[in-house]
Design a protein that fits this description.
- This protein is mostly helical and 338 residues long.
- It folds into 2 domains: 18-216, no CATH class; 220-338, no CATH class.
- It has 11 helices and no strands.
- It starts with a helix and ends with a helix.
């Protein structure tokens, strides 16, 4: 945790330097006519995440221990910095007057963070609440910011609707679960908190999957479909078998997770890499329709990679005799991907 916290400080330091350099560039005469666009990108990609991080840090002080505070602050920063970076890159290429055509990528990244954080919540139920609240806080503040941006023109109502579905929906179910556990089941406060965190995670993941389904790309006319290249077909075939091979190799290298635990990141790392590659190859550009088999497989690989990140964390944190359920879950996830 201390290493991750130190990494955040480094990232914030880099962002501060980039912000200063950006403001200097804005002042140059050559930036005339581009200053508004440059300032908007700096504000979205650099300033907004920093403000949300520090506000999250202050909110985190309300938790009982310093670890919960750090977890909440870390996730509130990363879960908002990465999606806003994507928006900033889009605005740089297309301009603020352009339209991203879908808010699906925001729900996609939100779901990725949920799947990646569930492992920490399962390993330590006391951390579960800060994890889900940190991700939810990032999603909420990000949504409020995006509503104000011109790039979301025409999509604001849909963005609000998806925000209600993925944020307000799980919170409502969690409140019902808390009341039921206290009044009907007579559970202790600690057990109630664990149940609420579990319900929040489960409901947020299910509702995010529903949002992804509702925001899916529609049917593509036969004449508009693009053929999959030999490279795309090769990567699809490779992604069927490579994760299983890497998973078995990881088990040998780590002796079942008891040593060299950094090798546990091999499978999630591969899935993130191949997911981004497939999504890039399958994206729609220049008025062309996306290649759905490539883009969809890339999204699935990335999401499974996030879930495998949780599996790897759980394998590394548990004793050897307790690892079998998590190893089996990992195999099931890779089977779903295949």
């Amino acid at each position: 945790m201390d290493d991750i916290w130190e990494a955040v400080r480094v990232v914030i330091g880099i962002q501060t330097i980039v912000l200063v350099l950006g403001l200097i560039l804005i002042a140059f005469p050559k930036s005339k006519g581009k200053r508004l666009k440059m300032f908007g990108i700096l504000s979205t990609v650099i300033v907004a995440p920093l403000i949300i991080f520090y506000s999250g840090y202050l909110i985190g002080t309300t938790f009982d221990n310093s670890i919960a505070q750090k977890v909440f602050s870390l996730l509130s920063f990363y879960a908002v910095a990465i999606p806003l970076l994507v928006i900033g890159l889009f605005a740089r290429e297309e301009g603020w007057s352009a339209n991203p055509n879908s808010i699906r990528r925001q729900c996609f990244l939100y779901l990725s963070f949920l799947l990646g954080g569930v492992g920490a919540a399962i390993n330590d139920p006391e951390i579960g609440m800060p994890v889900i609240l940190g991700i939810g806080y990032a999603m909420l503040t990000q949504t409020l910011l995006l509503i104000c941006l011109p790039i979301m023109k025409g999509h604001r109502l849909r963005l609000i609707g998806m925000g209600i579905l993925t944020i307000i929906g799980p919170i409502s179910l969690a409140l019902v679960a808390a009341k039921f556990s206290e009044e009907q089941l007579k559970m202790s406060s600690s057990k109630t908190q664990e149940l609420v965190a579990l319900v929040l995670f489960a409901a947020a993941i299910v509702f995010s999957l529903l949002a992804m389904f509702l925001l899916r790309h529609g049917w593509i006319a036969e004449e508009a479909k693009r053929r999959i290249s030999w490279l795309g077909n090769g990567l699809l075939m490779l992604n069927i078998f490579a994760p299983f091979g890497l998973y078995l190799l990881t088990g040998r290298l780590t002796n079942g997770g008891s040593r060299n635990e950094e090798w546990l990141m091999l499978v999630p790392g591969w899935l993130f890499f191949i997911g981004l590659t497939l999504m890039t190859l399958g994206r729609g550009v220049g008025g062309l329709q996306p290649i759905k088999p490539l883009h969809g497989s890339g999204e699935m690989s990335f999401l499974i990679g996030a879930a495998m990140l949780s599996v790897a964390f759980l394998i590394g944190e548990t004793e050897t005799y307790e690892q079998d359920p998590y190893v089996i879950i990992g195999l099931i996830l890779l089977g779903i991907l295949a």
